[in-house]
Amino acid sequence: MLDKFEDGLDLALGEIVGVLTTPIFISIFVSLRLFPSYFIWIFNLISIGGMISLIREISFRATTYIVGWFVGIFILAYSGLLAPIDILIYLIPLVFLVYKAKKSFTY
User: Which terminus of the chain is more solvent-facing, meaning fewer CB atoms within 10 Å of its CB: N or C?
Assistant: First the structure.
């Protein structure tokens, strides 16, 4: 649990750096033929699975964090830093998150 604002800020900055650098490194490795081209799709599928399992297991408080994370993805997409396929990939966990929220608020 993040008790201090600084802890959350450190975590957010670390995730921003990771989100921006990971696709760059994967693209470089694919262009240098160190990884096959289908590796990008495998990485995306693993990411989707990880996001869905995370959303399934988190509490309500952490769910609000994930909602903020999706807002950040929207900002990245709006500024042109995400490709259309990336946006489509992130829609899958977003649908799962909406389903979880709807299920938790149903009596």
Answer: C
Burial of residue 51 (number of CB atoms within 10 Å: 0-12, 13-18, 19+): buried
As a whole number of angstroms, the distance between CA 104 and CA 92 comes to 19
Sorted by where each begins, the domain ranges of the chain are 5-104
Give the H or E element holding residue 54. helix 39-57
Length of the chain, in residues: 107
87: helix, coil or strand? helix
Mean pLDDT by runs of 10 across the 107 residues of the chain is 65 74 83 87 79 68 70 82 80 78 67
Residue type, 101: A
Inter-axis angle of helices 39-57 and 60-78, nearest 10: 150
Do 70 and 94 meet the contact criterion of CB atoms below 8 Å apart? yes
